[in-house]
Structure formats: structure tokens, C-alpha cells
Write a structure and sequence with these properties.
Layout lengths: L4 H18 L11 H22 L5 H30 L2 H15 L3 H7 L17 H24 L2 H21 L3 H6 L1 H19 L7 H20 L8 H18 L5 H6 L2 H8 L1 H17 L7 H8 L2 H17 L6 H24 L16 H6 L15 E6 L1 H14 L11 E5 L2 H8 L6 E7 L2 H4 L2 H15 L5 E5 L11 H7 L8 E3 L2 H13 L4 E2 L11 E3 L17 H14 L8
Parallel strand pairs: 1-2, 1-3, 3-4, 4-6
Antiparallel strand pairs: 5-7
Helix pairs in contact: 1-2, 1-13, 1-14, 2-6, 2-9, 2-11, 3-14, 3-16, 4-5, 4-17, 5-6, 6-7, 6-9, 7-9, 9-11, 10-11, 14-16, 19-25
């Protein structure tokens, strides 16, 4: 396929907004859509290469995958090595465990699946994951693994491009259907089955151009290619201008990418813009730039106890450009040439490095991030298991005694159950506690399902991560309905506010490891959104509201990171460790009106 400078320029227009988005730059709320442009370009180029080689009888699977591996793996291994060294130095054990999982998933091109099963793309935790951006490589590599087979066997058996059209269109519409019907934003964003339509849009365009079926007058080329650029750029600034449905968020960018690739010709404004030297330069090194930007941002964030200003994050992220150039010049280009690095040496090195990375990642996973070597910084095993043990109390029955309590909500409610148990039943076997129930859902869902049991409860305690999971108006409406029902019945109602213990625990590592400090008296700011929403709850529901943060604040209105004995209070700045639950319970069940439910 003939080289096109404008496509390299389009690559630059896709990678830079991703950097801006991950650096929290205002007015680039849709910068994440740069990945969608990558997908269209990949689908277009890969299909063009495979079909062209098939038509000339020069296609071979070994040659195709050799080129893909030489293009992708060397720079990826370099970045993985870089992140692995820094992770060992700068991460707490629990985060190091998660990093080990990411390494293994990246080696097997399934980090998109791991991300879906764990933190997701949009979570706060993702900002601190050096390899979380390799989810997009997973999607592309899954496409590379399957599509050449399909193209080869369909084309060889029919000798007809039309059959490829039919194949691509069927898969395209299936993927669109899944994108529109699967009720999980994370799944739709991360998985190949709901992203395939973007790659296939590029693939279908490649077939159209291969057969020269685009016969518009040249006067339209400039208008349509410029329209494509405008669609892309406007979506970066305002991604939800059509809808917040993921398919409709991505559609304008995909359409814009297709228009640019189709109609960007010499002399058009789009072509002149995209072929400027700095755009072509960044586009040429865009893969390495993309690989480096997230580790740089993640490690920078890990060292701070509060969110750095976006200007600082942007400045730091731009270091990925010189690093990307060095990687391109001395790694990508060197390994891309099989004449310079022979197959025997190349694949020996690849096999060795995969073995090392997979074994290292597994060690980090099974040892909880080598926590035995950093016991003072560990959470004591898997802290999520402690939070989720409360699911065992999902056993609401009709024959409980009148002093039975029910805690309603999500993982924050499970935290509160643990705090209650640590404070009130510290000497009791967990499985012998029989006056606590847990309901995983909203207060109104609880009432709808268990209205006939309401009078059996002494109290209903409702909580959530109010300021983060849905809109505040939805919460307020839900609670008003809840109060209107429960005030007519016997149980007391407590609405427990949001809680938070800062932005990032990893900042303490530099003090303990690099300064030799043994002082655990770290205090951090509570997220403003949490404090603001608690004030709103207090204003709306003064008779029912309980503030879980107020008793813990110091004179500067900050919260501690450690208990007085030197144990972490939370493992993710939101959810409690066992010692954290004990610490919070001591305050919340003595210094708020929740003391009325203590035996």
C-alpha cells in the first residue's frame, strides 16, 4: 500500500487528545475518542495490506504476523520493563499485585478483559495503573488474530471481493447491535465484540478504495475531508453532543475518520493540515508516544497526595514525545527490520521476555505485591475480600427479633456493617452474629422487595458513595421516597453520608522508602465533592443525616491516612481495611446518633 502522510497526521490527531484527556486538560472531555480514530485507521490499513497481498498472491500468515509482532512487541516490552522497575520502587503492595495482573494480561493481549473485570476504564483507580492503556492494544491484537483468517478463507474460497463486503457487513452490524443492546458501559467501551464495528468501518472503506468505488467529483473532496476533521475535533471537545450512549458517542468520530481517509487529497485543507511536518512527525512516533504517556502520568500521580493541576500533568505527559521518538528511533525501527535482527534472535528474545514478564506478574499476584517485604505498607492480604464478606448477611427474613438492623446500599454500606461489627462485636465469631442484615441496592428497592418485613427492624441504615455513583438529584429523590414510607413505620432511619480518605495512598512510599521516616501522622484533604454532597444531605435531611467524616477530621479539616497504631485506614481511599473499619467504628458509633443502635 502506498504511504500516506495524511494518515500519519491523522494518527497525531488521535494520540494528542488522548494525552490531553488523561492529563485532565479542560475542553478535551472527549480526548479518549482518539482511540476510536486509531481503530478506524488500523482496520483500514490491515485490510488494505491483506487484500492487496491476496490479490497479488503474496500473502502469508507468517509474514503478516511477523510484521505485526515486530511493529508492536519491542516498544511494548520496553515500556513494560520501564514500568516494572518503577512499580517495584513506587507502589504499595496491593497496587503492585494489580500491576502484576496487568503485566500478565498485557502479555496475552487481554488487558481489556482484565480491566473490565476489575477497576474498569472510568474508575479513579485506573489513573494509577501504568499499563491500563494497553486495553486498546488488546482490542487491536484480538482483531489481528481473527480477521486475517476470515479474509483469507473467504477470499480464497470465493475469489470475490463482494463476499468480503458481505462478511464485513454482517460482523459490523452484529457489533453495532451488541453496542446498542448490552447494558454495561464498561463492556461496550472495552470489548472487541462492541468495538469491532469501528475496525470494520475502516476495513469496509479499504475494500471500497481497493475497487475504486468512490466516484465523487473532486470539488467535494475538500468539503467532505474538512467535515471529517470538524467531526473529530468537535467530538473531542463535546463528546456527548448527540447522546451519552457509547455507540453514538463514537459514531461521529468514526464517520469523521472515514471521511478524512476517503477524501483527504493533495490540495484539500484537511490534507494541508494533516501533512504539516509536526503532525507527520508525531504521527510517525505515535505508537511509542501512546505507550509511554500513561506510565509517565501514573507514576507522577502516585507520588502526590492530591490531584496535580492539569498544567503540570500536561507538561509531564508531553515527555512521552521525546521518549516516543527515542523508542521509535532505537527500538521500533531496529527490530522492524528482519534483516538487522534475524528471526531466530528476535523470537528467542520475545519468548524469553514473555516468560520473564508472565512469571514476574504471577509472583506479584500470588504474593500480594511482595507484601511480606513491606509489611508496614500492606493491607494484610486481599482487602476486597474483607469488604465483600458482608454479602453473607444478605439473608433478610421475616422472623428476626425487633432489635434487628438492616444496612442498605453498595460497598459503602458493607464498609459500615464491618465498622459496626468491629465496634460492637469485636469478640464475637463473625458467623454467630444474627441481628444484622444487608441489602445490596437502593432504599426504595429495599422497600419494594421487603415492605412486609419493615416493622421487624429496629433501624434501617442507608449509605452509598453518594457523590460518585449517580446524579445527586436521583439520590435525593430516592431518599425522599424512602423517608415518606419508613416514617409511617417502626424502624428508625439513618442516612449516612459519603466518606473519603484522600486521593492516593501511594504517596507515603517515598517518605518511608526514600527518607527513612517512620512517622505515620499523615493527614490529607477529603475530596471536595464528598464534603459538598454531605452538606447537601444534611440540609435536605437534617433529622436523618449522619456524617461519617466529621468525627474523624482534625483541626485543619483533614483525615488521617493511618490509624494511631500505623495501619492503613483504607486500601483505595474509599473502602476500609479491617483496622480502618475498627478505627471508623470507634468514632462513628460513639460520636454520632448511630450510638442509639449500639447494644
Amino acid at each position: 500500500m502506498q504511504y500516506r502522510e495524511d494518515i500519519d497526521g491523522l494518527r497525531a490527531l488521535s494520540v494528542l487528545p488522548v494525552l490531553f484527556f488523561h492529563a485532565n486538560v479542560p475542553f478535551f472531555q472527549g480526548g479518549f475518542l482518539g482511540v476510536d480514530v486509531f481503530f478506524v485507521i488500523s482496520g483500514f490499513l490491515i485490510t488494505s495490506i491483506v487484500v492487496s497481498n491476496l490479490k497479488s498472491n503474496s500473502f502469508s500468515f507468517s509474514s503478516f504476523w511477523d510484521k505485526r509482532m515486530r511493529r508492536i512487541i519491542p516498544a511494548l516490552f520496553l515500556v513494560t520493563l520501564f514500568t516494572s522497575i518503577l512499580s517495584l520502587l513506587l507502589m504499595l503492595p496491593n497496587d503492585l499485585k494489580s500491576y502484576g495482573q496487568s503485566v500478565v494480561a498485557t502479555m496475552f493481549s487481554v488487558n481489556n478483559i482484565l480491566l473490565y473485570l476489575t477497576s474498569g476504564y472510568w474508575s479513579h483507580a485506573a489513573d494509577f495503573k501504568p499499563l491500563y492503556h494497553t486495553w486498546s492494544l488488546g482490542v487491536e491484537e484480538q482483531f489481528y488474530l481473527v480477521m486475517p483468517f476470515l479474509i483469507y478463507f473467504v477470499y480464497k474460497s470465493t475469489k470475490n471481493i463482494i463476499s468480503l463486503y458481505v462478511l464485513f457487513l454482517v460482523i459490523f452490524f452484529c457489533s453495532v447491535f451488541f453496542s446498542l443492546t448490552i447494558d454495561s458501559d464498561e463492556f461496550v467501551f472495552l470489548m472487541i465484540v462492541t468495538r469491532a464495528w469501528e475496525l470494520l468501518a475502516g476495513a469496509i472503506l479499504a475494500l471500497l478504495l481497493e475497487r475504486n468505488q468512490m466516484h465523487l467529483k473532486s470539488s467535494f473532496h475538500g468539503v467532505l475531508s474538512l467535515l471529517g476533521l470538524l467531526l473529530i475535533v468537535y467530538s473531542y471537545v463535546n463528546p456527548y453532543w448527540i447522546s451519552d450512549l457509547q455507540f453514538l458517542v463514537s459514531f461521529p468520530v468514526v464517520l469523521g475518520s472515514l471521511l478524512v481517509i476517503m477524501f483527504s487529497k493533495e490540495g484539500t485543507i484537511a490534507y494541508k493540515l494533516l501533512t504539516r511536518k509536526y503532525f507527520v512527525f508525531i504521527g510517525t512516533i505515535s505508537y511509542s508516544v501512546y505507550l509511554f504517556h500513561q506510565p509517565i502520568l501514573a507514576f507522577f500521580r502516585l507520588g502526590f497526595e492530591a490531584t496535580p493541576h492539569y498544567t503540570i500533568l500536561l507538561s509531564v505527559s508531553l515527555f512521552s514525545i521525546p521518549l516516543g521518538y527515542l523508542s521509535y528511533q532505537y527500538v521500533e525501527r531496529v527490530f522492524r527490520d528482519s534483516g538487522g535482527i534475524g528471526n531466530k534472535l528476535f523470537y528467542s528474545l520475545v519468548s524469553l521476555m514473555i516468560f520473564v514478564f508472565v512469571c514476574g506478574g504471577m509472583v506479584l499476584h500470588v504474593t500480594y505485591g511482595l507484601e511480606q517485604y513491606r509489611s508496614t505498607l500492606s493491607y494484610g492480604g486481599n482487602p476486597k475480600v474483607y469488604v465483600d464478606r458482608v454479602y453473607s448477611f444478605e439473608n433478610i427474613k421475616s422472623n428476626y427479633s425487633e432489635n434487628n438492623l438492616v444496612f442498605v446500599g453498595n460497598s459503602f454500606a458493607r464498609d459500615l456493617v464491618n465498622s459496626y461489627i468491629e465496634y460492637n462485636y469485636s469478640d464475637t465469631d463473625y458467623h454467630e452474629i444474627n441481628n444484622v442484615s444487608y441489602f445490596n441496592g437502593s432504599c426504595n428497592e429495599f422497600i419494594d422487595l421487603h415492605f412486609d418485613k419493615i416493622n421487624n427492624f429496629q433501624a434501617v441504615v442507608v449509605t452509598s458513595n453518594w457523590s460518585r455513583d449517580v446524579s445527586s438529584s436521583d439520590h435525593v429523590l430516592d431518599l425522599k421516597k424512602c423517608i415518606s414510607v419508613l416514617k409511617k413505620h417502626e424502624p428508625s432511619l439513618f442516612i449516612v453520608g459519603d466518606k473519603n480518605f484522600g486521593w492516593n495512598n501511594n504517596f507515603v512510599v517515598k517518605y518511608f522508602l526514600f527518607s527513612g521516616s517512620s512517622d505515620y501522622s499523615f493527614f490529607v484533604d477529603v475530596k471536595k465533592s464528598v464534603l459538598d454532597f454531605n452538606l447537601k444531605l444534611k440540609d435536605q435531611f437534617p433529622s436523618y443525616f449522619v456524617d461519617p467524616i466529621a468525627p474523624i477530621l482534625n483541626k485543619e479539616s483533614k483525615v488521617p491516612v493511618f490509624t494511631e497504631e500505623g495501619y492503613f485506614i483504607t486500601f483505595d481511599t474509599d473502602h476500609l481495611t479491617p483496622k480502618g473499619a475498627e478505627f471508623v467504628g470507634e468514632y462513628v458509633f460513639t460520636e454520632t446518633n448511630l450510638n442509639t443502635i449500639i447494644e
